[in-house]
């Protein structure tokens, strides 16, 4: 391909950053399809050419996977998309997924040096483009590695399980993934709505893993259908990636009323099974919480015909944990926000929730997390109309007792304890992602899993067995 007629080093002076194109809000709330549309080749090359190839690429430090961003930027600017995708795949097991769901404004793009003089390079958009290009042009590696004779069980098929399975298959392990649900993908399928990550994107990645020889046992609950003891007997090592999807409870008077739901069943019902069990059509929906899951619930409610979807969050926008990109998308789509507002009880009629009793909050000193601690304003109580309340206060790890992970130690908040190589208290049994670190980003689960896979490989190479 031809080189762009640009003064490369200073292209950023001539070319403004462009955000990924997206469909209009009125169109996108009418369906569950992804909201972003692709850049064309010329536009993505222009965006990549804004990268100045700085000597100390801070973007790599900002990316939890330490992706080789400047290398794939240079190749993309030259139109060498397949080469760029090959480099990207060396450090990431699912770049087409991370590029869609990472909060880049807090990670790679936040660290980009261009923030000091202009706007950051559109890293996520370039990563997505080159990976999609590779899929479309047969550029995704499906090589089956020669067997090394080892068998590894992976429990859970979320981002951690998939990344660990992928890394181990690449070095010749026979990997079997055990998934309790009928569809593989874990959080990628159940927790992330299709308008952010189309289910077919996840299915396509799983298909690549299957073609590499990874075996998926679906509808198989460890602790019920197969025991941990059996897995330890039949496999040389085990990776646990079961996530942390136990909802944090709503602990206020009235929490038992009908019409109050946890976020995950609501998202699964609307995005995966398309069920109408939780009907929000024509209703006033209140979403409690300010993280990405809350944004997902607001946007899902609007797509499901809610008359109004309002986020009730006790801190202000500056202290809200959710991604700014997703907040902006939610606002564009018609979501309302009540910041510095805390629900203190719920009121109903005939057993059905009708109102959220709220109190106004003010921000005090920063707490241990560095965010300013909210406190109630005396006498500021008010009522907020709500026919449906969705609780999106985040997640805790599952009680691992139910899985029968005998001997696997847990920490004080219920997460699986791991050492620096992701090994649990049981030799040969490793863990990563939300089940060991607590609820976090997809990209963090991928990083943990890659680390665990390297440790498992080293562990097996020393001749030790579980
Ligand atoms: Fe950025 Fe996430 Fe891609 Fe890393 S994986 S380059 S943080 S979008």
Description:
The protein is an alpha/beta fold and 466 residues long. The protein contains 18 helices and 16 strands. The protein has helices at 11-14, 25-28, 41-49, 58-62, 69-77, 81-91, 95-101, 108-111, 123-136, 159-170, 187-190, 199-211, 228-234, 263-271, 292-303, 324-332, 434-437, 442-461, and strands at residues 151-155, 174-178, 215-217, 237-240, 246-247, 260-262, 284-288, 308-312, 336-338, 341-349, 352-366, 372-376, 382-385, 388-391, 395-396, 429-431. α15 (292-303) links the parallel β7 and β8 (308-312). α5 crosses α9 (123-136), α7 packs antiparallel against α9 and α15 packs parallel to α16 (324-332). The protein is globular and about 65 Å long. Bound molecules: iron/sulfur cluster.
Helix-strand blueprint:
Blueprint lengths: L10 H4 L10 H4 L12 H9 L8 H5 L6 H9 L3 H11 L3 H7 L6 H4 L11 H14 L14 E5 L3 H12 L3 E5 L8 H4 L8 H13 L3 E3 L10 H7 L2 E4 L5 E2 L12 E3 H9 L12 E5 L3 H12 L4 E5 L11 H9 L3 E3 L2 E9 L2 E15 L5 E5 L5 E4 L2 E4 L3 E2 L32 E3 L2 H4 L4 H20 L5
Parallel strand pairs: 1-2, 1-4, 2-3, 4-16, 6-14, 7-8, 7-14, 8-9
Antiparallel strand pairs: 5-15, 10-11, 11-12, 11-13
User: Roughly what percent helix?
Assistant: 25-40%
Q: Please tell me the total number of domains.
A: 3
Radius of gyration, in angstroms, nearest whole number: 23 Å
CATH homology superfamily of the largest domain: FAD/NAD(P)-binding domain
- Give the mean pLDDT: 93
Structural class by SSE content: alpha/beta
Strand fraction? 15-25%
The CATH topology name of the largest domain reads FAD/NAD(P)-binding domain
Number of strands: 16
Distance between the termini: 52 Å
Identify the overall geometry: globular
Chemical compounds bound to the protein: iron/sulfur cluster
The biggest beta sheet reads: 5 strands, parallel
Strand line-up across the major sheet: 3-2-1-4-16
Q: Give unreliable regions as ranges.
A: none
């Amino acid at each position: 391909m031809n080189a762009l007629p640009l003064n490369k080093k200073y292209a950023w002076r001539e070319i403004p950053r462009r955000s990924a194109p997206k469909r209009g809000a009125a169109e996108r709330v009418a369906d569950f399809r992804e909201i972003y549309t692709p850049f064309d080749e010329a536009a993505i090359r222009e965006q990549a050419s804004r990268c100045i190839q700085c000597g100390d690429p801070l973007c790599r430090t900002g990316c939890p996977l330490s992706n080789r961003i400047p290398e794939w930027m240079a190749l993309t600017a030259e139109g060498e998309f397949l080469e760029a995708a090959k480099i990207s795949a060396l450090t990431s097991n699912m770049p087409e997924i991370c590029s869609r769901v990472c909060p880049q404004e807090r990670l790679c793009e936040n660290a980009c040096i261009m923030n000091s003089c202009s706007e950051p390079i559109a890293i996520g958009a370039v990563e997505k483009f080159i990976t999609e290009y590779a899929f479309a042009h047969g550029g995704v590696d499906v090589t089956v590695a020669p067997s090394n004779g080892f068998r590894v069980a992976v429990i859970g098929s979320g981002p951690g399980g998939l990344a660990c399975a992928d890394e181990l298959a690449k070095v010749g392990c026979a990997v079997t993934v055990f998934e309790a649900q009928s569809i593989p993908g874990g959080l990628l399928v159940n927790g992330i709505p299709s308008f952010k990550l189309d289910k077919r994107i996840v299915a396509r990645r799983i298909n690549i893993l299957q073609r590499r020889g990874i075996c998926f046992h679906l509808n198989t609950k460890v602790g019920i259908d197969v025991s941990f003891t059996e897995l330890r007997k039949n496999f040389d090592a085990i990776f646990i990636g079961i996530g942390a999807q136990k909802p944090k409870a709503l602990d206020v008077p009235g929490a038992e009323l009908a019409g109050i739901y946890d976020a995950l069943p609501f998202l699964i019902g609307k995005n995966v099974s398309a069920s109408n069990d939780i009907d929000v059509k024509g209703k006033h929906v209140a979403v409690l919480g300010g993280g990405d899951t809350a944004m997902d619930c607001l946007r899902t409610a609007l797509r499901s015909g809610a008359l109004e979807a309002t986020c009730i969050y006790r801190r202000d926008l500056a202290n809200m944990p959710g991604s700014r990109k997703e907040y902006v998308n939610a606002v564009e789509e018609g979501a309302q926000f009540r910041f510095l507002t805390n629900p203190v009880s719920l009121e109903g009629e005939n057993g059905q929730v009708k109102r959220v009793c709220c109190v106004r909050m003010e921000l005090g000193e920063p707490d241990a997390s560095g965010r300013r601690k909210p406190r109630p304003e005396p006498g500021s109580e008010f009522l907020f109309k709500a026919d449906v309340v969705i609780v999106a206060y985040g997640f805790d790890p599952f009680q691992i007792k139910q899985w029968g992970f005998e001997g696997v130690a847990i920490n004080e908040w219920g997460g699986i304890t791991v050492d620096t190589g992701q090994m649990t208290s049981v030799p040969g049994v490793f863990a990563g992602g939300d089940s060991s670190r607590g609820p976090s980003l997809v990209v963090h689960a991928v990083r943990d899993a890659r680390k665990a896979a390297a440790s498992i490989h080293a562990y097996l190479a020393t001749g030790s067995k579980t």
